[in-house]
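Posting this for the archive.
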Amino acid sequence: MMCDDNVVCNLWNLKIHLMEVVDNEDMRHFETRDNSNLAFIEYQVSDRKIFLIGYEFPEGFEESGKAKIMIEQILDMIEQRSMRVVPMKLIFKQHFRSHASRKKLLPVGLRI
């Protein structure tokens, strides 16, 4: 988002960072609402590992940076559960490549 007004930009960034991500265990996905649109990341659980297997984002969600924020919040949730993450899609693998500190969440021996 391009901003001419710093106050508007700061409020926009704050709103993005306050995104509420919920683990919908019945649907086996993490989800958030972007206005009236649902964004979700699908997963499967096996042996204390969460496999991130798919995603669906509303138009403009990735470009606005919201996908990265959602992924970060999900990784925080997974870390709190003392689980490991296996990224199965390119978007998740790229996130780990660009956030080296998150690689501690990968299973031992998994290279991204």
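The chain has a mean pLDDT of 88. Residues 21-105 form a domain with the Aminopeptidase fold (CATH 3.40.630.30).
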